[in-house]
Structures are given as structure tokens and as C-alpha cells.
Design goal:
alpha/beta; 526 residues; 17 helices; 15 strands; Alkaline Phosphatase, subunit A; 2,3-Bisphosphoglycerate-independent phosphoglycerate mutase, substrate-binding domain; 2 domains; globular
Length: 526
């Protein structure tokens, strides 16, 4: 493939990196240098920083490194930065939050069952632990009384393709043992490979993941039938059921497809499931099976069309992470590789599909699902307007440009005669943000006429076509060239910047780029 030429320095450097075998996700840091070969736009004492990402759980570690005076995990300089974040990444961070939570997500199914004396077990491997704990519990960082969590460490490897099955067997074994013991009223289990491996551009790896999840599904359901648990089988979003774009290139992103939903119990012949439901309806349905009236906060409705008296009130919610539903065979790796256990269960037990994206889950029309939104809505049983909708509304009505957190960063930069830095994901659509956020912040910074404004980007391929990163970086660079005092000075792959499992060596690579200018140095075309 002929290397594409760009007329902006960072975009061209990224294109060169593609030609050398790098990709957006793991792109090594690239830094613009001046005529004296000195890195431009490094973070310095009393600078201001706006971190434009949303979602939040993967942004915590980098924010800690940039803000904590006694950061313990690798050498840092305490720069006394004024930092504003787009949303609240963690309540303990020393930052100003532009779009803080608007409501307390009380009475998630975990909290409600806990208050009613029921015992709950969460079983997941560490790669997806944050979703089954923090998001599923209504964005609560601490466990509730009567809630146990078994978090199985994921494989420690930079090459995820070494273990396509991940720790599925261990997760399944823990779940099976818990059902056998019968100590928990609700077990919530996440099996992760279909999502994690679905983001990798190797079909055989995705196929192995699908086979593994299907096998563990069969094992778990067989045990549930024996132990008397009613099983709900579903997913948070899809990936590999629509793995190709119409032009045949690989689409590693999440999808807007519905997800499967099955109920497996001794009342199979009596159960009738309604259609048109979404993930918010799962929690109310679990409570109905358990014989409990849902709390007033849960706006979701039961998926059962008829009243049934269940013999056992024990429930297992089995989340097959990333397993979407698509009857079309084009690009559908589930149909290509086969899922005999899922097929058998669908034929034997009540089945429907659930909406896992878009407005029913508080997201904009046409948007894809993600693990955060999926687990949140499964756990709280009601629709919550996403941060993405709130931010776009604020941009459209102008409130974004008067936001107090942004204005605090700007006023501190002006007061201290220091630089304002803008940091964020460079993607048309990512669960961590949008290029539109950075463009809006650039417009805000230009209005304020600060003398020194620097942009730092992170790239990630998920949901984008191959080599999309260079295209978007070029777009931002061209926009910056038209603006006074704004420079796009460094870029790195999101693999190094967005971590949630304490891989501090990755975060250090990003920190060293931002503060020390470590990485590949390139000359400014100007």
C-alpha cells in the first residue's frame, strides 16, 4: 500500500509510523520540536490542563500522575497544575469537573438486594472488573454490604492474542462453585473474550474467543439447571457480529446491534418474553423472578409477559461481554465460527433481543453501545442521560464556552502567565470522547486569546477504519493552523495513556511524553 502524504507534521509522522508497522492503538509517542530541536509544549510548573475525555475509569491513572504531589508509582515532578476534567473520573482527584454527575444513582439492583438482606456475588476477571463493580453498582466505588466480589487477575501480557480464551474457564469454575454452594441469591458473572478479542484484527483469534465463551456458556448453564438457579443470558453490546465495513475492511469497534436475552429455568413452558425491551429491563425482571417488588427508582419494566411463580428465587445473570445479535451473515464471526451451545439454548428456552445502544440507554441516536453504558443500565434498571448527550447539548446551546471548570483553567493560565494544554482522544466516535470536544475547546481557547495553547492527542482504532488516526490528526492540525497561538504538539496511542489495571509503565510513557518530551522528535513543517 502506498504511504499517504499529509501536509501537516504530526499526521505525516503517524503515516510514517503506519508504514513501519505501528498502529493507532499502540502508537509510540511523537513530539513536535522547534528549530533548536527542543520539544514544544511540554507541561511546566503552574500550567493549566483540560482533559477532554469522558467515560473516566481509564483516565484516572494518568490524572493521578499529573496531579498528585507524592505520586508513588514512578518518578514525577509536582507541577502544581490546574487541571479540569470533562467529567468526574474519581471523586478523590484534585481537579475541577466540567460536567459533574447530575444525580445519585441510588438503588441499583446490588444496593437494593443488599438492603433487603440478599447476598450478591460478582465474578469477573480484572480486565472487566470496573464494569461489574463500579458501573453496575451505579458508579459506586465501594462494595455494598452482603456483596462479594471475586476478581480473577487477567493474563499479564502485552500481546493479548497469546490467550484468546483469557480467564474464562476460571471465571466459569468460580461461578459453578458458587451455584453449587448456594450461598448467593444473585450471582452476576462477566465472561470477557468476545469483547476484548473482538477489537483485534485477527479473525482466528476472535474465533477462538467465540468458541471459548460458547463452551463456558454450556458448562455454566448445565450447572445452573442442576443447582436450581434461573439463568439470564445476555450481553452489554456487540462487536464481532458486525466485524466488517461494507467495503470489506475490518471494523473492530462496538456495534449498535441488539444483544441476545434468554431465560433458562424450570418454568420454560410458561415463560413468554416481550419484544422491544432494552438493558434497563433486566434488573426489574430479576427482581420479579426473585419475588421482590422493584424500587421506585427503577423505570425499567419486566420482560415477562405473564405472571409466574418461580420455584427457586436464586438468579444468575450471565453477561457474555461483546456478544451482539445479528441475523445477517456478512461479517458475522459468530455465525462463521459457530456457537453450538448458544444455538441449542436459543432453540430450547425463551429468547428475545434487547436494545443496547442509542436513546433508550441515554445515548444519541445512531450511536453504538459500550461496556460502561451496558453494565450501568443493567445494574440500575433505568435510563440515564449520557455525558455525551449533555456535552453536545452544552456545545450547541453555548453553555460549554462559559463552563466554570474550563474558565478556571483559563483564568489560572492567564493569572500565572502559563500555558493552557488540551488533552484528549482523537476519534470521530469513541466511548472515551470525540474529536468534537477538542474542536470546541480550541474554539473556546481562541476566544480567550491566551498566548500559549498546546494540544496533545491519543489515538485508538476501535470503531474507526484503518489509519483513521492520521486523518483526524491532520484535521485538527489544519484547524489549529487557522487559529492564533494554538499548536498541536504531541500524540500517542491510547494503549499507553488509558489504563485501568495499574500498568504504570504505560502511564509513565505518556507522562514522559507530556512532561519530559520523550518520544520520536519531528520537525515542524513551518
Amino acid at each position: 500500500m502506498m504511504k499517504k502524504k499529509y501536509d501537516t507534521p504530526l499526521a505525516q509522522a503517524i503515516a510514517d509510523a503506519y508504514a513501519n508497522g505501528e498502529d493507532d492503538e499502540t502508537l509510540e509517542p511523537i513530539i513536535l520540536v522547534d528549530e533548536n530541536h527542543l520539544p514544544q509544549g511540554r507541561l511546566e510548573s503552574k500550567d493549566s490542563l483540560i482533559f477532554a475525555n469522558i467515560r473516566g475509569e481509564r483516565e484516572v491513572e494518568l490524572t493521578q500522575a499529573l496531579t498528585e504531589e507524592r505520586f508513588p508509582h514512578f518518578p514525577t515532578l509536582y507541577l502544581n497544575l490546574t487541571v479540569s476534567t470533562m467529567i468526574m473520573y474519581h471523586p478523590d482527584l484534585n481537579v475541577n469537573v466540567a460536567f459533574p454527575p447530575t444525580e445519585n444513582l441510588n438503588n441499583s439492583i446490588t444496593e437494593f438486594l443488599s438492603k433487603n438482606g440478599k447476598r450478591i456475588l460478582k465474578c469477573v476477571e480484572s480486565e472487566k472488573a470496573i464494569h461489574l463493580t463500579y458501573f453496575f453498582n451505579g458508579k459506586q466505588h465501594s462494595k455494598f454490604p452482603n456483596e462479594d466480589q471475586v476478581i480473577i487477575p487477567s493474563h499479564e501480557t502485552e500481546d493479548l492474542t497469546e490467550f484468546p480464551e483469557m480467564k474464562s474457564a476460571e471465571v466459569a469454575n468460580t461461578t459453578i462453585n458458587a451455584m453449587t454452594d448456594g450461598n448467593y441469591d444473585l450471582i452476576v458473572t462477566n465472561i470477557s473474550p468476545c469483547d476484548v478479542m473482538g477489537h483485534i484484527e485477527r479473525k482466528e483469534v476472535v474465533g477462538k474467543a467465540i468458541h471459548e465463551v460458547d463452551e463456558q456458556l454450556g458448562r455454566i448453564v448445565t450447572s445452573a439447571i442442576t443447582t436450581g438457579y434461573t439463568v439470564f443470558v445476555t450481553a452489554d453490546h456487540g462487536v464481532a457480529e458486525s466485524w466488517l465495513y461494507p467495503d470489506g475492511t475490518i471494523d473492530t469497534g462496538h456495534t449498535s446491534n441488539p444483544v441476545p436475552f434468554l431465560i433458562i429455568s424450570d418454568k420454560t413452558s410458561e415463560i413468554q418474553l416481550r419484544s422491544g425491551g432494552s438493558l434497563v429491563d433486566i434488573a426489574p425482571t430479576i427482581l420479579e423472578v426473585m419475588g421482590l417488588e422493584k424500587p421506585k427508582e427503577m423505570q425499567g419494566k419486566t420482560l415477562l409477559q405473564n405472571e409466574i411463580s418461580f420455584k427457586s428465587h436464586y438468579v444468575l445473570l450471565l453477561i457474555l461481554d461483546g456478544w451482539g445479535y445479528n441475523p445477517d451473515s456478512y461479517g458475522n464471526l459468530f455465525l462463521e465460527f459457530g456457537t453450538p451451545n448458544m444455538d441449542q439454548l436459543r432453540n430450547a428456552f425463551p429468547f428475545t433481543t434487547l436494545i443496547a445502544s442509542g436513546p433508550p440507554l441515554g445515548m444519541p441516536e445512531g450511536t453504538v453501545g459500550n461496556s460502561e453504558i451496558g453494565h450501568l443500565h443493567m445494574g440500575i434498571g433505568r435510563r440515564v442521560v449520557s455525558d455525551r448527550v449533555r456535552i453536545f447539548d452544552a456545545i450547541n446551546n453555548g453553555e460549554f464556552f462559559q463552563n466554570k471548570a474550563f474558565q478556571e483553567a483559563i483564568s489560572k493560565a492567564r493569572e500565572n502567565n502559563t500555558a493552557l494544554h488540551l488533552l484528549g482522544i482523537i476519534s470521530f466516535y469513541s466511548s472515551h470522547g470525540s474529536i468534537k470536544y477538542l474542536e470546541a475547546l480550541m474554539e473556546l481557547a481562541e476566544r480567550e486569546k491566551l498566548p500559549k495553547i498546546y494540544l496533545h492527542g491519543m489515538l485508538g482504532r476501535r470503531g474507526e477504519k484503518p489509519e483513521a488516526g492520521a486523518h483526524y490528526v491532520n484535521q485538527i492540525e489544519l484547524k489549529a493552523k487557522k487559529m492564533e497561538n494554538i499548536r498541536f504538539v504531541s500524540v500517542i496511542g491510547r494503549h499507553w495513556a488509558l489504563d485501568r489495571e495499574k500498568n504504570w509503565d504505560r502511564i509513565q510513557k505518556t507522562y514522559d511524553m507530556l512532561v519530559h518530551g520523550k518520544g520520536k522528535h519531528i520537525k515542524d513543517f513551518q
